[in-house]
Write a structure and sequence with these properties.
Elements: E1 7-11, H1 15-27, E2 31-36, H2 39-48, E3 53-57, H3 65-74, E4 83-87, H4 92-100, E5 105-108, H5 113-161, H6 165-179, H7 183-193
Parallel strand pairs: 1-2, 1-3, 3-4, 4-5
The structure holds magnesium ion.
């Protein structure tokens, strides 16, 4: 994903910091998709549309950055939205927990432009790699799932019709081709009809 399409959400309770970051990002051709000043605003934003990256302040009123992270993690089985924590020097103790919760990086206030841009670039490249890996994982999971269902349907057909495994498989395959429905669907129907 190129920089211009990399949607970044800035979350910090201090308006000046948000303005600062936004300026740096826009000068460097990143797309700032939104700003949040509370943890709740972050979650509301993510419910509507997931950004590609969140720059997340650790200390915010009502809900800390860490609590936001925990909430976000609840909603994703595998792929986590990439987060870069914004911390103050005094937040050191929280950084360890943030790392355990899966942040990609963290930067310390006062924010240095190079620190910010380096962290974002690494995150952009790494998160793209991760996204592709998860896509593959999900494809494999689906393939295993299909195989399981087809196996069950095959067993039903073999027993019912006194067919060989090959005959049962051929039947599912042919029905799928003729009806232009995926084998998974055909197999599910067979299972349902014989339940
Ligand atoms: Mg703060």
């Amino acid at each position: 994903m190129n920089k211009e399409k990399f949607n970044i959400l800035i979350a910090d309770d201090e308006a000046l910091i948000r303005i600062d970051i936004k300026e740096i990002l826009e000068e460097n051709n990143y797309n700032v998709i939104g700003e949040a000043k509370t943890g709740k605003e972050v979650l509301d934003f993510c419910n509507k549309s997931m950004p590609d990256l969140i720059l997340l302040d650790i200390k915010m009123p009502e809900m800390t950055g860490l609590e936001v992270l925990r909430e976000l993690n609840k909603n994703s089985n595998y792929y986590k939205v990439p987060v870069i924590m914004i911390t103050a020097y005094t937040d050191k103790d929280f950084v360890k927990e943030a790392i355990e919760l899966g942040v990609f990086s963290y930067i310390t206030k006062p924010i240095k432009t190079t620190d910010l841009l380096n962290a974002i670039e690494i995150t952009r490249v790494k998160s793209e790699e991760m996204r592709l890996i998860y896509q593959e994982v999900n494809k494999l999971k689906e393939a295993i799932e299909v195989r399981k269902i087809v196996e069950i349907a095959k067993g039903i057909l073999m027993e019912k019709n006194n067919w060989t495994e090959r005959e049962a498989f051929r039947y599912i395959q042919k029905t799928s081709m003729n009806s232009r429905e995926p084998m998974k669907k055909i197999a599910q129907k067979i299972i349902q009809e014989n339940a």
